[in-house]
Amino acid sequence: MMTKNGLTYADAGVDIDAGNTLVERIKPAAKRTARPGVMAGLGGFGALFDLNAAGYTDPVLVAATDGVGTKLRIAIDTGNVDTIGIDLVAMCVNDLVCQGAEPLFFLDYFATGKLDLDQATRIIEGIAAGCAASGCALIGGETAEMPGMYHAGDFDLAGFAVGAMERGAELPADVAVGDVLLGLASDGVHSNGYSLVRRIVEMSGLGWDDAAPFADDTLGAALLAPTRLYVKQALAAVRAGGVHALAHITGGGLTENLPRVLPDGMGADIDLNAWDLPAVFGWLAQTGGMEQTEMLKTFNAGIGMVLVVKADRAAALTELLTDAGERVHELGTVTADASIRYKGALL
After folding, report:
1. What are the tens digits of pLDDT across the range 169-210?
2. Is the peptide bond before 259 cis (omega within 30 degrees of 0)?
3. Distance of alpha carbon 314 from alpha carbon 166, whole angstroms
4. What distance lies between CA 121 and its chain's CA centroid?
5. Burial classification of residue 345, based on how many CB atoms lie within 10 Å of its CB (0-12 exposed, 13-18 middle, 19 or more buried)
6. Secondary structure in 3-state letters for 157-202
7. pTM for the whole thing?
8. β-pairing, 137-145 with 102-112?
9. 276 contacts 346 by C-beta, under 8 angstroms
């Protein structure tokens, strides 16, 4: 006679009830991100969005996906997970706006070995905060509890954003020699280069709870400053007219990201004296013995987004962006030389 072993999914390390509880906990946060076009709340097999209700007549969809890299390691090690979700959203929606698209909705993937309800709630509430700040609805996601796949306390995040624009509004467009480069200040390291950041911290001998040499905070908290969301400000500039391209300055820095939006055969002259290098980058460079060239192709170096604008619109757009809360720096111009040339010095 066969005997039953009585095993349950919970015995294998997966708590379905905890997952259901998490969905109920985060529903209010998701509801706060609702915008025209959202057709249903969390809990279905798929998420529905009505483009007509969002105000589009002949839309082109734009999609982006990203993560936050090894910045997660600092969030996990410090227990400070409240803003890592903002990073996740920013890395996706800041890319979408560079195509000229308005972010419409966002989905997240959260995976861990053992679901910690409080931790997961804090993470997803951070995601919702990022969505709300960028006018993007959090309409779905996946929480995966996978015993044996992650060390205790570890988790992983991925984000997926979809946006839209009317046909014919795609960026970059009409970039020309003489266009002006407007740089928007970053809020620190953002979400790229953290494998090097963590290596430099090891070299420094400091711990995450030690005072940051470059800020009035602990080192861990200072390095977890969330990626700045540029969406609403950048879209306002695009709608005002005169913006030919936008470049999100992520991994690869100015050196590699700006050429992605320039036509073949064009480059740029950039004055490194146009802005002050934020203290965090000065500390990283000094502690790690980094050369300026390496800094400019690894980190954002204080510039998180660049707008390529028509020269006679630069002043008006600078005023608009400044009024929207941005710190704007005129970095240089587009040239007929297919290279990024720097003058001056950051370090």
Report:
1. 999 999 999 999 999 999 999 999 999 999 999 999 999 999
2. no
3. 24
4. 20
5. exposed
6. EEEEEEEEEECCCCCCCCCCCCCEEEEEECCCCCCCCHHHHHHHHH
7. 0.95
8. parallel
9. no
